Amino acid sequence: MKILGIESSCDETAAAVVENGRTVLSNAVATQIEEHKLYGGVVPEIASRRHAEAICPVVEKALRDSGCGFDDIDAIAVTYAPGLIGALLVGVNYAKGLSFTTGKPLIPVHHLRSHIASNYISHPELEPPFFCLVVSGGHTHMIEVSSYTDFRIIGRTHDDAAGEALDKAARAMGLPYPGGLNLDKTAQNGDSSKYKFPHPSVDGCPYDFSFSGLKTSVINTIHNAKQKGGEVDIENLGASFMSAVVDCLVKNVEKACADFGYDKVVLAGGVSANSVLRKRMKESCDRYSRKLFVPELKYCGDNAAMVGSQGYYEALSGNFAGLDLNAAATLPIDFKR
Ligand code: KG4
Ligand code: ZN
Fold first, then answer.
1. Which of 32, 149, 179, 309 maximizes the CB count within 10 A of its CB?
2. What region does 319 belong to: left with phi over 0, alpha with psi -120 to 50, or beta?
3. How far apart are CA 89 and CA 100, in angstroms?
4. What's the 101 CA to ligand 1 centre distance in angstroms?
5. What is the pLDDT of residues 26-60, one digit of tens each?
6. How far apart are CA 166 and CA 169, in angstroms?
7. Which ligand is nearest to the CA of 47?
């Protein structure tokens, strides 16, 4: 089954053709990074307008690169939630128009489910059940993935997502958008023992996270140094902060896997590209004889190959949408349509 995946939930307009959930025939992305960089973050209205401009050429490119015409495509999968509403609506409406004119079935795909599916592309042998840490700009979830379409959230952040905390800390350090990625690069040469940060946990909720105190702590460190007329060493500060965030993530994953008996750990979402997280999680999994799966770097951020992959499994479970499909800014991953 060949699926055309379409993604427009944030600042990448993307389309891809994926066969049987695992084989990527094409993967086209038009990124808006350069434009949002001017503002230090994603400007929702600009994102929507750029999606509207880019969506036709991106879908055409994905079809051309795959060697497929519309006749060769069996279904159209589209990200419908969660994300920036104006951005999602561009992809959803485009996919509905395409479904209407071609008569191909429409498959609604949850954005976080597709992030998890990026691992099915990178690891053809990977099958549920497994334990997954989803870390993106808007979400930090620990999830039991019991089948391709059955999910149970067992831990989440009470405030900032890990990616959000990294982005805000990067901004406070004067690093350009996209913050998390630039922080990762800057911290490569830093010493993570130079600054001490708290390792917050949430009372009574051992699987949950809280990153806002950690973020405030790094911002205060910068302000205090400036008030005293001093300088902060961005490389060391970045390395120390990133290390504290990763410590919290690894610690909770270790506890949950031990408590729930998982020996397969999967990372997903934009922050899964982080070099320190990948390294520390691997060390932890090796220590406890667990197998770690991480997406290839090109599938960590938002892309449509992962939408085509998850779309295949949604189709197998009979999850199709009518032409009344709407987008949603928020929607839990375990929502059953
Ligand atoms: O999944 P994603 O591309 O978009 C959302 O669904 O939110 O995740 C974006 C997040 C941003 O916070 C970005 O700074 C972060 O992923 N990110 C990274 C790295 N690359 C992207 N964070 C840390 N290290 C990286 N290498
Ligand atoms: Zn994402």
1. 309
2. beta
3. 16
4. 35
5. 999 999 999 999 999 999 999 999 999 999 999 99
6. 5
7. 1
